Structure formats: C-alpha cells, structure tokens
Fold this sequence. Notes:
CATH topology of chain A: Amidase signature (AS) enzymes
Oligomer: heterodimer
Number of helices of chain B: 15
Helix content of chain B: 25-40%
Largest sheet of chain B: 9 strands, mixed
Strand order of the largest sheet of chain A: 1-3-2-4-6-5-10-11-9-7-8
Number of domains of chain A: 1
Helix content of chain A: 25-40%
Number of domains of chain B: 3
Number of strands of chain A: 11
Mean pLDDT of chain B: 93
Strand content of chain B: 15-25%
Distance between the termini of chain B: 67 Å
CATH superfamily of chain A: Amidase signature (AS) domain
Strand content of chain A: 5-15%
Radius of gyration of chain B: 29 Å
Mean pLDDT of chain A: 97
Structural class of chain B: alpha+beta
Amino acid sequence: MELYKLTAHELHEKLVNKEVSSVELTNALYERIDAVEDKVNAYVTLDKENALAQAAKVDAKIAAGEEIAPLAGVPGAIKDNISTKGLRTTCSSKMLSNLIPIYDAHVIKNLRADETIFLGKTNMDEFAMGSTTESSFFGATHNPWNLDRVPGGSSGGSAAAIAAGEAIWTLGSDTGGSIRQPASFNGCVGIKPTYGRVSRYGCVAFASSLDQIGPITKDVTDAALVLNTICGKDEHDSTSLDVEVPDFTKALVADVKGLRIGLPKEYFGEGLDPKVKAEIEKAVKQYEAMGAEIVEVSLPHTEYAVITYYIIAPAEASANLARFDGVRYGYRNTSATSAPEMTTLSRTEGFGAEVKRRIMLGTYVLSSGYYDAYYKKAMQVRTLIRKDFEEAFKQCDVLLTPTSPVVAYPIDGKMDPLSIYLLDVTTIPVNMAGLPGISVPCGFADGMPVGMQLIGKPLDEATILRAAYTFEQANEYHKVFAPLGGNK
Amino acid sequence: MTKYITVIGLEVHAELKTKSKAFCSCSTAFGSAPNTHVCPVCLGMPGALPVLNKQVVEFAIRAGLALNCEIKKFNKFDRKNYFYPDLAKNYQISQFDKPICENGHIDVNVNGEEKRIGITRIHMEEDAGKLVHSGATISTSDSSAVDYNRAGVPLIEIVSEPDMRSAEEARAYMENLKAILEYTDVCDCKMQEGSLRCDANISIMPEGAKEFGTRAEIKNLNSFRALVRAIEYEVERQKEILEDGGHIVQETRTWDDANGVTLSMRSKEEAHDYRYFPEPDLVPVQLDDAWIERVRSELPELPAQRQARLVKEHGLPEYDASLIVATKAMAEYFDEAVKTAKDSKGVSNWMLGDVSAYLNNEGITISEFKVTPAHLAELVNLTKDGVLSSKLAKKVFAEMLKEDKAPSVLVKELGLEQVSDEGAILKLVEETIAENPQSVADFKAGKDKAIGFLVGQIMKKSRGKANPGMVQKMLKEKMQ
C-alpha cells in the first residue's frame, strides 16, 4: 500500500483502526522523500528525529485507547516562512539560512496541540516574493507533473510536496496568490482564508495587510481539517478576527442547488490561455448541470489590481524586511569595519535579486514627495477593488475564475519579472479585498493541471468549501497522481 | 548692533510608567541586567507582531487632559523607518499624522509675568534600545553592544509651539511640564535616567522681523541646567554667525555638556526620510467619550490647583507656594507635614530654606530625605511654642540629619530646651547689667544698639538657651 498517496482523513481512519501506526506512516513518507526529493527539491530542512518521536507519542496514545485529533499522527510540512521553535526557518534566504527560531508561530502551537507530525520545512520563493519558487537560496523546486516546469510560488515547495507524495498536508502562505497559484500548478487544493481568520503571529511578514496562512492538501476535506486546527482569534495578532470559527467539515456537502455562481468577465479576457479557459468553462457547465445558477458579473477595477499590489506589497515589505540587519540574528558580514557598514554589507550579500528589487520599489514609493502619488493612491484603489467585490456579491454567493491564466511554465528563466507579475491578476484582487479564495483541480491543459478559483464573501469559507467539495466529488481530478516525468 | 528675538520650541519625550512595554508584555523596569526584559516582539524576531497595551492610551489621554489638549478619538499608528542597531525592527511604531492629543497649553510664570505656551501635539510611540560603544561613536568603534531592555517601552512625545522667547521661559515650561507629568503619575521624570528627555528647536530673528529664522535642533539636553546653557550658547552662536554676515544652516546639533557647546550632527540634506506609512500590524483604536470622561474625572490635583490651595488654605506667598508644588514629592511632603504642624508658613520656610539647601548640597531629592514630615512638623512646633530659639532649632535640625530621632528627644538629649523661666533669666539680666555699666549708660543715653550687645552677653551666659524675647523685655524693664 502506498501510504503517501492517501489523504489525511483516510489515514486518520487507518491510524484509529490500527491498520497502520504513525511511526510506519512517518517512515513511509521519509522513504518517499528519499526517493523523489532530488528531483523535486520541495524541502529546505527535514526533521526526521523529532517527527518520529512525535509519531511514537501518538501511537502510544492510540494504543492506550485515547481519542486523537483528526490530524494527530498525520505527517505534514510547513512553509519555511512560518516560525518553528528549534527548527530552522530560513524563508529560503541566505539572510536567514542559519536562523533557529526561539518561538512557535500561533498555527504551529495549534498544530502541535493536535499532535500532528512536522516532516520538515518546505521550499519557497525567497521571503515569499515570487510565483515560481526559483528565487530560493536553496535552489528551485520542480513541478512533479513535469520536472522541467515551475511549481508556482511562492509556496511552491508546499504544493510540490503534496503532488509528489512527500507530505500528506502542508501549510503555505498567500500574499498575492502564493497558496492558490502553486496549488493550481500542482493539481492540489489550496485555500487562502479571509484576512484575519488565521493568526499571522510567527509568519515572517512579507506584506502584513495581505499575508494569510492556509493549507495545501490533496482534497477539500483535508483542507477543511487543517482549517479547523489553524483558524481562530489570537491575542498576539491584533488583526486576527474575534469571530466564531465554524466546524468547516460541516460545509462538506455535495450540493450546489440554487447556489449563485458569479463569473467576473474581467477574468476571462485577454491573456487567458484558451486551453485553461476551456477547462474552466467545462466546470461552469457542470455546476450549472448540478443546479447552480450562473450569473455574469463585473469587477471593473481588476486591471488596476496588479500595479496597485506592486506598490502596497513592496512598501510594506521594505519596512518588514528592515529588521534583517545582521545585528541580532541571521547572516552577518564579518569584514565590515563599523556597525552601519556591517548592516549594509549583510543586506547586500544576504538578500537575493528579487527581494532587493522589491525593497527598492517599496522604499521608493514611500519616499517623501512620492507617498501621495503612489502609496496613498494605491490604498484608494484598493478600496475601489474591495467595493467591486461587495457589489458583485449582491448578485452571487461565490465567484468562479481560473486560478491562473496559464498552467505551469518551463523553468528556463525566459519570463521577465513584469510578465510573471501580470500573471497574478487572478489571485491578487482577492488579497486586496481580504476575501477567502480556494483553488481546486478542474482539468488538464498540455498535461499540466488546471485550477479553478472560488472566491467567497468575507468569513464565508464554508460556501466556497461546499462548492469546491461538490465539484471534487463529481470528478476524479484530485485522484490523478503526478507522474514525476520530464528531463530533470 | 541688531537686536534679536529668540524663538524656542521644545520636543519632550516622556517614558510612560506602564508596568509592561507598549506592544508586548515585557517588564519596563529600569536598571536590570542587559537583555533580560525581552521577547520575540521587542527583539524584532521574524514573524513577531505588536499588540497595543491599552494602558499606554490611558496614560496619553491623562497627560493630554492635564495639558489642556483636545483628545482625538480616532487613533492609528504609523511606522517611522530608519536604520539604527538599537531599533530592533529598524522602524519605530509611532503616530504620524493623527496624534492622540492636539492644541494644548501650559501657563508659566517668568519673573512675575504669566505666559501661555502652546502644545501642538502629543503622540504615542515606542522607545529604542541602548547602545554601548567601545569607542567614541558608532562609526569609530570596534564593537558596540546593544541592550534591548528599553526597546518597546512606551513614550509620549510632547511638541510645543515655538512660543518661548528665552532660556528662562523654556526652563519654566519644562519645569511645569515635568511637574504635571509627575502629578498625573504618567512618568517618573528622571532626566538623568532618560525617562524624560528634551530636544530644543532654536532660532533667532531680528527684532521686528515677520518670519522666524532658520532653526537648529539641539539634542541631548539631559537636565534643566543643560537646557538653559544650551539655549544660551546656541543663541550666541547664531548671533555671531548673523553678525558676521553668515546664515544659519538648518541642522541637528548635539549638546556637549562637558565643553558647554553645541556640535553639528547632521544637516538638512543628511536628514532622514522616515517614509512614514500606517502600521498594518495594528488596528486603529477608537476612543469613546466614556473612556475620556472617566480619565478626566480621575485626574489628580494638578500643580496650578495645588499652588492656589496652598495660598488659600495655608496663607503661603504665591512664590513660595510655586516652589513647594514644583515637584510632586515636595508638595506631598508639605501636605504631610502640615497635618501636625501648628505653623504652615514655618514648614514652608524650613523646606525652602535649610531643607532645600541640604538636599542641593547632598545632590538628593526630597524623596530620599531622611527626616520625616512629622519630625519636621515637630521641629516647627517646638519653635512656635518657644521651646527652641530659631538658632537652637537649626542645631537640632543638624542633629536630625544625623540621627533618626524626634526633635523633642534630641532637645532633651542635647539639653537644649530654651530657658523661659523668669527667675533664671532675671538672675542673668541682673548679673549682666552689673558687669557692663558702660553699655547700660549708653542705652540710657539713647544708644539703642547697646541693648544688642547686652542680649548677646546674656545669650552667651545661657549658652544660647535663654528665650531671647524674654531677655530683651526684661533687660529693658530693668534699665528703665
């Protein structure tokens, strides 16, 4: 039995029924990692000893007849920008390549309380800045569906690990699509919760007003299980929302009768790969056949979303990344002759090109004399984008779009940064409005997975989970396994 | 020579007396071992987030109300970006365009003239850590150590209008401000420890000019004396430049207390661009009327009110009362002493005289003064009741500084009770008259001075213990 191909909810059954132990399961995952990791490079750091020790604890609990949480004993992996006490957290940057955190992120505390297993830390674009996972200091991650292609990003390691069977569930973070786009590129389910649903405490900040942690999994049920564990108010994060968290598994009902699904016309225009479009349209027809009502809607400010994002996110990042100065932790240049020079050289040598590009961009737009023209205006446009969604949601319950206008593209560095930025047009507006969004597999184009994005009203993860679950149960896409083919 | 008008505005940073830091639960205690009051938040560890300590807002409201400010209900925080190793995040969480308090004032009295000094704004922010360099400056040191215990300690910055026209006015403003912050218990105001810090913006302009001159910002003013000296020095420096036909450069200067000069730190061109933007990790705080009104209702008696009370209830002269209320500790000492003293003015005289002289001499404050208010009151009463002459009272006071004993006990131990026994004094008077016929003759011839000599002789005989009033009276009677 290939345990790594199973889902968390299937494995929970097997653990509880003592068909398999958590130690066996954890070992099976590490065997799988050993077998494929040199092709995929999904991980930055593995933590086998602690993972097996934790698995043994869960096994003892099961043996004692105690009840265990749904994710207990089920091995997962954590994006390397989420702080894990005692376990290196690098953000895939030279800057933090030696950082052993002194504290756990809120989500990590919750997951530990549920006795889940952390196999290791997954690769990402440096400081989550990118859509390809090529900017990692630890080398690019490869797409298990075609190793010559990118896995997307920035949570490329977390998505590729799921597709390659190197983890049962993973955590990613999503600032402009960094969970949903790699989930789409790797045929996984990925959900970015409503801004404030999940505490950001311990998630190394890229753009504080946009960042949100969420799961990447094989199916919608697993996504709901991880959400149940990580959501909720945290007193250490002022922006986390003090609202009741429903049991998201209750939303897993295969029924979309009467559900009004909005198709924002701006998401189906120029730049959308016709083959991707065809798969999305097929999914729309299926929903219609299952009793959903399809309405066309408009989000008129969509075209401004990307440029606005590339003002707000780098502005926040330029301040968030200022703390990496070589003084207290992280990479330090040792040849400098003064403290100010030490900081300058540490940053020059510790950051990669894309990170520096965004710090410069952010520093520029916040500069005296430019603030009003850039940052202030961008915040005003952001309000307009949010209002677009409010208007659209008067006509529908969820919005359906392609997660990305394209499928995973080759790792050949031919894409210039601007072209890559523009591909995030389908995911960025969701962060700008703070809405929940999920990507579910809905077909293939040129042998690569296509993802469908469902966007919900604020705090209405339940409805997009239900819509995603209904579609998933009517199809087999989530059961197709990545072939690990290609030339790599 | 052209006459110049001095224009001064002060920016004062006051550390708030909260138990925990502004954005984490670390202690704000001063003087602990380096880096013992730290956590992921105030160390700026990756991923850590700030959470506002509500007490910071409470204290800012209290200070604002005591300084006659409007309290703004909508409050947000901003990031002030600059790189320095003592600033863990390399940005300071502060308030930029929407400070919590605006449009306040303090009324000061300089040389008998009342003057209102405007307060532009008060905003909340966090303090930085402390650097210790191996060399003279950060750029010339082989190494620098950082202590983050102070990082994240809450501050309010109080910015005045450029309303002050002399060092004396600046000093008066600063003294009043310090007293108000002490009375409201928001800051312990220890300038030497850095819990109250002052920067001065100073410019001069020719008399009659419509526009202010170019200003220099002077930092590192750690005492009232430094403030006054720095202003006086800076004004002269600027005058000299203008008299020589030069012009003032807008710059930041630091006060070198040892050499009594201001030195250039950085020019306007080198000034930081702080790139302020709203702090996305904190949500705005909306104050409601109930909160503001509760704080207002809980405001303690402020220095001006207390001064008026001391004048009204205790009959102190305005000037004396103003000195008593200048620090909260002095005022409290006074209030405590007059509970048992029969003569409030006497208490005030002692406090402003011998007590203050002693404190200045020892370089301590009244909080560290060993003599209790009750004992000082007793000393005042002994004088008032005629048990001690004022001369002997000083002797007893000197003993009280050495020994923690009640003055009545000391009087007995030292055998210093004033002799008011008529028979005993009469004996001395008669003896002295007999011994000094010339002086007696002089007195009878109308030389009033002679009586002083005779009183002195009697006091000498009694080793200072004879009641001088009685001596004088009886001498006159005997010589008539």
